Amino acid sequence: MKMMLAENIRAFRKERLLTQEQLAEALGVTAGAVYKWEAKLSIPELELIVQMADFFDISVDVLLGYEVKDNRIEATVKRLREYRRSKDWDGLAEAEKALKKYPHSFQIVSASAALYSAFGIDSGDKALFRRALELLEQSCLLLNQNDDPQVSEQTIYGRIAETYLGLGEPDRAIELWKAHNAGGLYSPQIGDTLAQNDHVEESVPFLSEALAKLLSDLIATIVGYINVYLTRGDHASTQAILSWGIGVLQGLRKADKPNYFDRVSAALLATLAGSQFLSGQRSEARDTLIKAKELAAFFDASPSYDESDIRFITRIEGASAHDDLGVTAIAGVRHAVSQFENEEFTALWNRIEKEEENHRE
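User: That's the sequence. What structure does it adopt?
Assistant: Structure tokens below.
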């Protein structure tokens, strides 16, 4: 419950054009007493509150101006998240109240742990990390209540590991991350923490795995955005994200040696050309298709699916690269062109491809 008594006394006094002295005289108190009420230095006795409400011709409820919070679990969790987002440290007191009221609620315990952890990171205060650790361990015991698909035992232990890192115990953090690293979820954190703690060589395989997964996710995300933007007819956004993505992938080449991402980039270039063609940029589309063809030919002349040929990445045990673009990179370009189902664009590609064949003859 939040009261607005001080603010309301001031507001109703000013509404009636009264000074603090005049209100004090009407209530039979000193001007200093009114000042303290409005400055939140003291609270008037109940009898005076009733007297003031009568004087202002309002109810006591209106004078108090109290707000009753929605203290149900869902609403409380939402407030705790907002405290964290806005970096409002009043949220810690709110969390402790909620924990007393709902000590066995997974949602409350988890949200409170996140709040303490976030403020621990912001301040470096180990006491906050220790409280976060207590709550995270408690949340593990309440996990059967969880209905959030993005939260699991694996993710909670990841948060516990982060907390140990905040407490200055990197070895315990690494141990926990390794034990719950299914799908390479914590490879970036493991690699980074190892590298920062003089285990450079041990960190490299984890960093390589993390970068490879990041790039795979990046390509999938870019393709997803392409489908969104093309469906909307937003060619400016299509071309922007493709240009950015292709630039990132092309930055992964080791000298003049082809790597798997050249094959992917060739198909993305063909998609970029399709967007340019549909938006009336016929000359640019032709130039981009030529680049796609040249890059595909570069890859097909000496195809490499070895991840260690990619800049920054070393060999990853058990890794392999697969896609549905076709057997060759040039087949991937043809596939990308065909996806537009545009006869003129396909004809443009056929002419470019035929020009190359004639040149070879």
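Residues 5-64 form a domain with the 434 Repressor (Amino-terminal Domain) fold (CATH 1.10.260.40).
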